[in-house]
Amino acid sequence: MKRYFTRSAAIAALSAMAFSAPLAARTLDPEKPEDAVEISKRVQCGEADGSPAIFHWSGKVYSRVQGEPDRNLFNVEGMNIRQCVKVTDPKRGTGYRQVAREVTFYLDPETNEVVRTWDNPWTGETVNVMQIANDPVNMRTVFPYSTDGKAYKIPNMRQQGKWMLMPLEIPLFYHNVLAGDYQDYVGNKYHAMEIFDFAVLADEILDTDNPTAYPTVSWMRVSDWMPWMKMRGRQGQMVFNAMGTKLTNYDDLPKVIKDEIALNHPEYTSPPPADDARPNETTWTVFKQMIDAQRAKEKSGK
Q1: What is the pTM of this model?
Q2: Contact, 164 vs 200, CB < 8 A?
Q3: Model confidence over 4-61: pLDDT tens digits?
Q4: pLDDT, tens digit, for every residue of 230-259?
Q5: Contact criterion met (CB below 8 Å) for 58 and 244
Q6: Residue range 52-79: average pLDDT?
Q7: Do residues 81 and 253 make contact, with C-beta atoms less than 8 angstroms apart?
Q8: Distance CA 2, CA 149 (A)
Q9: What DSSP string describes the chain?
C-alpha cells in the first residue's frame, strides 16, 4: 500500500509540473489569424496583460505653403504610454484591446526648449502654444476574425531579410468639431494623414521565447494648421516627420519630455485603465474644450 501511494504521488507531481511549465517556444506564423493578432500585440505592447509599454519619437515640423520655401517651424519630442489586455469573444476569438495616452511637445528649432508662445510669421501675431496632449487615444479591439468571419491580417506586413516591415497609412477625413454643421457643403472637414512605419527583427517578434519586441517606428503626419496658430483659413499645411522606438522603461525618455510631463501632465507616467471607455481626444477636441471653458469664464465674469 505504501509503495502504491509513493508511485501515485510521483505521477501526480510530474503531472503538476507538466501543467505548470511554460509552453514550449514556437515560431509565430503571420498567415494564421491568431498568430497575426499575437504579433500585433507584441509589437504594440507585449505578451503580458497590463504591462505598460512606451513609444518615443523625435523629429521636426515643417510648413508647406504654395509659392514659398518650407520652414522648420518646430522640433518635436513625443511619447505614447499604453497597455494591452486580452479580450475574448465567442465568435471572433481571443484578441486584445489597447488603451493609451500621448503627448508631443513643440520645441524651438534652435534651442530645443519647449515653446510656450509663438510669433506667427504669416499674421504677425503672438499666440499661446498648445502642446499635443491627447488622453485617451485608445485602439479598437483586434480579434482573429471579424463579425462576418474574415480572418485578421496585419496590413502590408512583409519580411525583408532579417526585418519585418509594417507600413501603415491612415487617411483622416471627418467632421471638424471646430467647424459648423454644413461641412459636406462648404468644406472645413478635418483632413489629415498619419503614417506609421514599424520595423522589427523577425527573430525577435516571431519567437514566442520573447515576451515582447522593440520595434523602431517612423511617424509622418500631414495636416491643416493647428487651431492655436490662428491662421484664419490661410492656405497651407503642416508636415510632421519623426522617428523613434519602443523603450524598455519610462526613465529612458529624454529629459525634456520627463520634465514637461512632471510639470504639466503628471498623469502621463502611466497608461489609462484597461476598461477605459472615454471617447478619444485630438488636438481639435482638446482645443475646443479649452476655448469653450475660456468663453464660459469670460461670460460669467469670473
Answers
A1: 0.89
A2: yes
A3: 334 444 434 434 433 334 456 789 999 999 999 999 999 999 998 999 999 999 999 9
A4: 999 999 999 999 999 999 999 999 999 999
A5: yes
A6: 98
A7: no
A8: 56
A9: -HHHHHHHHHHHHHHHHHHHSPPPP-B--TTSHHHHHHHHHHHHT-SSTT--EEEEEEEEEEEE-TTS--EEEEEEEEEEEEEEEEEEETTTEEEEEEEEEEEEEEE-TTT-PBPSEEE-TTT--EEE---EEES---EEEE-SB-TT-PBP--TT-EEETTEEEEEEEEEEEE--TTS-S-HHHH---EEEEEEEEEEEEHHHHHBTTSS----EEEEEEEESPPGGG--TT-S-EEEEEEEEEEESSGGGS-HHHHHHHHHH-GGGGSPPPTT--PPP--HHHHHHHHHHHHHHHHHHT-
The 10s digit of each residue's pLDDT in 150-177 is 999 999 999 999 999 999 999 999 999 9
What are the φ and ψ backbone dihedral angles of 86, each rounded to 5 degrees?
Answer: -70, 140
Four-point Cα dihedral 110, 221, 86, 135, nearest 10: 60
Cβ atoms 51, 87 nearer than 8 A:
no
Those residues with Cβ within 8 angstroms of residue 64's Cβ, 6 or more apart along the chain or in another chain: 70, 222, 236, 237, 238, 239
Please state the φ and ψ torsions of residue 158, each to the nearest 5 degrees: -150, 155
Whole-angstrom CA distances from 64 to 118, 131, 192, 246, 274 are 18, 20, 14, 30, 39
